[in-house]
Amino acid sequence: MLQENGVRVVVNDLSPGQATIFPRGAIHFEQNLGCEPMIFVAAFSAEDPGTTSLANNFFRLPSDVVLATLGDYHLGQDVEEVEMEIPESVAFGIQECLQRCGLTAQS
Fold first, then answer.
1. Does pTM top 0.85 for this prediction?
2. Which of 10, 14, 75, 93 could be a cystine partner for 18, CB 3.0 to 4.6 Å?
């Protein structure tokens, strides 16, 4: 997870039976790095915790806000071009994981 204001990235490697807490609003992800199925249990402090894809929603802001946030000198291209490069799914390493575990992708 990313601590507030990007202070540092926190990585927790959990063993069976362990738990971790993500502070409300923290940018975070979970990933099973093993080949065995796992059980993931989540508890929230509200009935509707909501979800968001940060990059996709960030680029829904007006272009001038995005440019002011990133600085147009970093982009080198139009905001719309950058937005088109963001994948719908934030999952990464899928092919490596499938290969390591001897699995094939399901359609």
1. no
2. 14
